[in-house]
Each structure stands twice: as structure tokens, then as C-alpha cells.
Amino acid sequence: MGKATGFIEYVREEERKRKPLSRLDDWKEYTSPFSDDTLARQGARCMDCGTPFCHMGMEWNGLTSGCPIHNVIPEWNDLVYRGRWKEALDRLLKTNNFPEFTGRVCPAPCEGSCTVALSDQAVAIKGIERAIIDKGFAEGWIQPRIPKKRTGKKVAIVGSGPAGLACADQLNQAGHSVTVYERADRIGGLLMYGIPNMKLEKEIVERRVRLLAEEGVTFVTNTEVGNHITAEALRAQYDAVVLCTGAQKQRDLAIEGRELDGVHLAMDYLTSVTKSLLDSHFMDENFIDAKDKHVIVIGGGDTGADCVATALRQQCKSVVQFGKHPALPKNRTENNPWPQFPLIFTLDYAYEEAKAKFGEDPRQYCIQTKKMVGDGKVKALHTIQMEKTENGTFREIPGTEKVWPCDLVFIAIGFEGPEQSLFAQFGVVNQPMTTTKYATNVEGVFVAGDARRGQSLVVWAIREGREAAQEVHHFLMNAVK
Ligand SMILES: Cc1cc2nc3c(=O)[nH]c(=O)nc-3n(C[C@H](O)[C@H](O)[C@H](O)COP(=O)(O)OP(=O)(O)OC[C@H]3O[C@@H](n4cnc5c(N)ncnc54)[C@H](O)[C@@H]3O)c2cc1C
Ligand code: SF4
Known about the structure:
There is one protein chain. By secondary structure, the protein is α/β, with parallel strands linked by helices. It folds into three domains: about 5-140, Alpha-helical ferredoxin (Fumarate Reductase Iron-sulfur Protein, Chain B, domain 2), CATH 1.10.1060; about 155-250 and about 415-475, FAD/NAD(P)-binding domain, CATH 3.50.50; about 250-415, FAD/NAD(P)-binding domain (3-Layer(bba) Sandwich), CATH 3.50.50.60. Helix content is about 35%, strand content about 15%. It is built from 17 helices and 20 strands. α9 links the parallel β5 and β6. The protein starts with 5 loop residues before the first helix and ends with a helix. The model has no long low-confidence stretch (mean pLDDT about 95). It binds flavin-adenine dinucleotide (FAD) and iron/sulfur cluster. The site of flavin-adenine dinucleotide has 39 residues, from α9, α13, α16 and α17.
């Protein structure tokens, strides 16, 4: 343990954030890391608990508690406090293939479970994680690890999101020859086209992909398995196939006016903007543009927040976000005790920016869109306020109808799960979350990540990729478990 009295002496400090208004002028990351001095103090706050709840990684009532990949957090907190960075990096990489992603975008269930959070603010685990890996790259400690021996076994991974990449990394390091197929033009799944650049700069993703390629992983882009190459052909060429195709089937809103111009699914918006940014820095004009538009985002979740932040950077005239649920409470409720993930009100980056620009939080709560109106182009949304009944359902409040003028609408009401057609072509009956097994009913075909568990988090995708790789390895080597 670093400093026995560290948690008493030092307060939690947050990662440095650029000023909300100035960060709207570009698409660069909005956070920057702690200084080394700050990190030593933050590491010193860790109590090296006998039972480190931060590291357990369980689900309670559908909420994640602790780190799903069981990062050995107290160990690297202590090493950072002592300035032993390289050892901290070694410990971190034992459990996490891609800390540069989770250190930036993870909602940090580890911090929600930190014991210090019982009476004070949690240890700044996520910021410490990011600092360790960033230093690892900056110091040149991260070098390609090329496997010394090859097993002669070939594995195809379909989908290059964090699950596919983690699975590829593990299997490649075990000596198998791995090819990752991706239907998009760039590798990374939602790390590339989903999570916006200001949360995770795409050079960070590309740096990791280059490293994996140098280590021996083969990447094939613009290739949709099931279309450009059939399931049968893939099975014939490879000893095992892992489906890491995500759960990107978007939920739509079947209401009057949905067909109007200016109404888009959130992912079409976010993808078009990131692709154009990367392809031409918007010179190709091939993106949905919110400039000078009144924007409404339907859906109160994180994808909706990313739409808000994107529209702000495009200089929208106004932005509002509709959510179905009431605002979260300021403190934990009795039903959401420590060490569960805290369901409390926070001001995410997008809302902080909207408040700085327009003077108010863009979120509207308990609101339902009844119809969209316009003359070919969307002009307004008609809504009504909702309230929660005693049995947990929602009912409309008569007399609360309202008309919201707008020019652009993004639908961000979640995802329906994985696309089923590829599973059907493989003959796979997907069993999301019903077992801890990644093997499917078809021998040699495995499934992992959001494709197995539904839309989740990057950290869960990494865990699934790692665990699936272990199963595939046993299958290939015919080992007894
Ligand atoms: C807008 C948005 C923001 C998010 N922000 C965060 C965040 O801040 N923090 C966080 O932890 N999580 C976040 N998430 C969730 C997180 O990104 C996902 O849980 C995670 O990426 C899932 O990883 P995956 O590898 O299972 O699938 P994905 O990342 O979805 O990757 C699947 C890949 O498979 C490819 N594919 C599908 N079918 C085929 C096929 N037939 N042939 C070839 N390729 C195919 C797809 O093109 C895609 O690239 C966000 C999600 C969204 C939508
Ligand atoms: S729960 Fe918090 S204080 Fe305890 S070991 Fe983990 S990070 Fe340190």
C-alpha cells in the first residue's frame, strides 16, 4: 500500500478538461491527463483494501460493480504512487489488452465500487489507468510482441470492435494465425464509428491496430461476411470462427412523420461525421450537417449525448434532448447501494458544453414524442409529458401537449440486438447471456461481445473477447478444461 494516510490527506482530483466553449472549436479529445505529481497523490489515496471491490467485476440487478476484466487496481495504484511506472504498465497489461480505450471511455464501474467512495470521493482509478498506458506509449515501452512459435491453426474473427480485437490479440499471442474481417472501411467497430473523436481520438485506435498488425494479425476491411464471403467458405478456410459482430441493429420510432427529410437514426449521423472528418476533414461534405439548425435528439442515453456534442461542434442553432425517464437523483437511493454502479445525476461532457453555449442543460425529462410534422422536411415535433405510475409504467399527463419547432431530428432510442442474418447463415442459435460459454451450437463457431450480450460497454467487450479466445484456444489444441 502506497501511503497509509493518503486517503485522509489528499482529495480526489479530476482529469483536466479543456474549457467547454473552446473545445467546441475542434474535434480533439476534451480531457487531458493528470500531471505526474497529481497522479502520485491520487495513487496514494488507495487503501489497498483486503477485499478490493474495485476489482471484482460482477453484475448486480443488471448493473456492473467493479472492473469486468479484473484489473489489479490496488497494485498499480501503489506502483504509480512510488513512481514505478513500467511495473505499473506490466500489471495493467496482464488483464487489459487496450487500456488506452478504457482509460478514456469507460464509465468506470471500478470507481463506483471503490471503498473510499463510502465516505468520500472514489480513487481516480480511470485517470490513473490512462496515464499508465499513455506513458507506456510515450516512453516507447510498448513494442510489438511477435509470437515465437506458430501453432499452424487458423482463426477468422468477424467484426473488429473491442471484442474482436481483444480476441484476436489473445489468440495471436497464443500462436494461432488470426484474420479479422470487417465490413466497414476502417478497423475498430464502435471505437471507430460510434464513439466520437472528442471522446476517443481515432489515431489512438489506429495506433493499436498497427501494433496488432505488426504482431501478426491480418486485417481485411470492406468485407462483409455472409455477403462478400459466405459462412460456408469461411468455415472451410479456418479451424475456428468467432462472431464479434456487435449489436448495432438500431431501434426506430414508428410514428407519424418518421419519413420526413431531416429525421435520422443517431448512428447514421455519428458515423457520417466521423467518416468525413477522417476522410477529408469535412472537405467532401459527405455528412449530415447540423450547422444553423434547430436540433432535437430523441433518446436520453449516451448515444444521444454524443449526438448533442456533435451537433454543438457543427454550430447548431439550438439543441434539445428528450428522455423518457425522470432525472436521476443527486445521491444514491436505497435501491442503488454501494458497491453497485451509482445511478446519480451527472453533467456529462455534452451537457456541460450545451450549458456553456446556450445557458441551459439540453435535457428534457419524461417526455414522449407523439408525431413529427413538416412539408416534406421536418418542421416540428409534437410531445406530451409522462409520469411514472406506482407499478412502474408511464402514463401521459393530459394538457401537457407541446410543439417543438426543429429542422433536424436524431433518433437515439437504443439498439434491438445483433443482426440475425449472419447467425442464420452459420446455423447458429445465438444464446445471449444465458450461459458463460462462447461456443455455439455449431462446432468451431463462437460468439462474443455485444453480439452475445447485447449493447454494452467497451470493457465488457474486451472481457468477452479474452474469455472467448481462451475457449477457442482449448478447442483448437483439444485441451481438457
Ligand atoms: C454512440 C455510442 C457511444 C458509445 N460510447 C461508449 C463509451 O463511451 N464507453 C463504453 O464503454 N461503451 C460505449 N459504447 C458501447 C461500446 O462501444 C460497445 O459496447 C462495444 O464497442 C461493443 O464491442 P463489440 O466488439 O462487441 O462490437 P462493435 O464495436 O459493435 O463492433 C462490431 C463490428 O462488427 C462489424 N460487422 C458486423 N457484421 C459484420 C459482418 N457480417 N462482416 C464483417 N464485419 C461485420 C461491424 O461493422 C462492427 O465494426 C458506445 C456505443 C455507441 C453506439
Ligand atoms: S476499492 Fe478503492 S481503495 Fe480499495 S483497493 Fe480498490 S481503488 Fe483502492
